[in-house]
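Q: Is it fine to ask for two folds in a single conversation?
A: Yes, each is treated on its own. Send the first.
Q: Here.
A: Result:
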Amino acid sequence: MSSQPTSSDTPENPLAITNTADRQAKVVVLLVAVVVLLVLVGVVVFLASNPARTANIRDIVLILSAVGLIVVNLAVGLLLVLLIFRLQLLVRLLITELIPLISEVGQDLRQTARTVRGTATFLSDQVAQPTIRLASFLAGLKGAARAANWKVREHLNRR
C-alpha cells in the first residue's frame, strides 16, 4: 500500500466536488420546496372542502395560540423576576466589595498626598530657602562690589 494518492483517488478537477455538492444541495432544496408547496395545497383543498372541520381546527389553533402566549408571558415574567434578583445580588456585591476597595484607594491617596506635602516641605526647608539666602547674599556682595567699584572710579576720576 502506497501513501501516495493515485489518480483514481483524487479527481483531476478539484471544483468537480463542489459542483456536485452544489447540485445535490440545489436538488434537495428544490425537493423540500415542492413537498412544502404540495402539503400547503393539500391543506387548503382539505379546509375548503370541509367548512365544519375547518372551524373546529381554527378554534383549536386559536386556543393553542392563547395557551402558548400565556406560557411565553409567564416565562418572560419569571425571567424578569430572576433578572431583578440577580441585579440585587450585583448591587450587594458592589457595595460589599467595591466600597471597601474605594475607601482603601482613598486612604492610599491621602497617604500619597501627605508624602508629597512632606517632600515639598523638606525641599523648601533644605534646598530652596538656603539657595535663596545664598542668592540674596551673592546679590548683596555684587551690589557692594558695584558700589565699591563706583567709589573707586569716582575717586580716580577726581584726580
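Q: Second one now.
A: Result:
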Amino acid sequence: MIKQNDIIGTVVNRGEVQRASIYRSNIAEDWKMDENIQIKEVDGADIVQYKPSGVCCKLMQMRIKDDIIEDVEFFGGCNGNLKGIGILIRGMNINEIIPKLSGLPCGSRPTSCPDQLTKGIEAYLEAKKAAAAV
C-alpha cells in the first residue's frame, strides 16, 4: 500500500479528482509534467499519479523503483478487476507491461483501464527521460 505521505496533493471527492498545484525547483522531489501526470520521488522510488481519460477509473497511482512496479492503486472503476490487475503487475518491469496491456478496449470504448495504465507508464518514461536531460 502506498503510504499517505507519499501522495502528491490529490483529493478524490465524490468521484472527482482534484489536484493541489505542485511546482518545485528541485525536479528530483516533485515533477509536474502536465495535468495528467505527477511524479514524486520518495525513498528512492517514484510515486506516479496518472489521471486517465475515457474510462471509469479517475486516478491511478503507482510506486515504481528501478522500473519495477512495487505497488499500484486505482481510484474509481471496476474494483475487483483493477485489484486483480494490480496484483498481476506488482513486481513486473514496466517495459513488460506496455506491450501486454496496450490497446485493450473496454466494451465499445476504444480504451480501457489497462490501456490507460500503459499510457500512464509511457508518460512516466517520457517524464523520466526529460528529467534526465535537464
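Q: Anything structural to flag on that second result?
A: Two points. The mean pLDDT is 83. Residues 4-133 form one domain.
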